[in-house]
Amino acid sequence: MTSYAETITRDNGLDGRPAMAAVAAMIAALFAGSTVLTPLYVIYKQAFGFSQITLTLVYAVYVVGNLGALLMFGRLSDGIGRRPAALASMAIAVVSALVFLLAENVAWLDVARILSGLGIGVGAGTGTAWLAELIEGKDKSRAAIIATSTNFVGLGLGALASGLLAEYAPWPLRLTWSILPCSWW
Fold this sequence. Notes:
Oligomer: single chain
Strand content: under 5%
Shape: globular
Number of helices: 10
């Protein structure tokens, strides 16, 4: 029996290697987005004057959004389709990044991390299910391998990109300081 999501995926011509590459890229982009803002945490810690334990809690609150996504929205893409769920997860990730950039206190950072966890939870689940539909044959474990691999590629690329920008490009910090609220200066 074919699910609604499988029917929508097939009817929209989203199959084959290009579609698998696009879904894998989406997963990688979501995870890259979760690590690319990491160098800003030091700036936030200095600007807001919070402790190391508070910084640890900001990292940990991500689990709230991720767990919420898995428990409450785990089957979302089965009902509304893979593409709408994937687009929603990407939109949530963009909102998370904007909240990070406009943060004025630790509560904003917590909200941004929860949104990041929510977007990644929905996106990773949707992407893995979508890959399983796109893979021909019965070897659906390949979808999990692709999803996990692109997860790690995204995490690595996000950290690498932010590290390289922080180390070698003079503009990121100037840009960051020009975007941040004036109350920080």
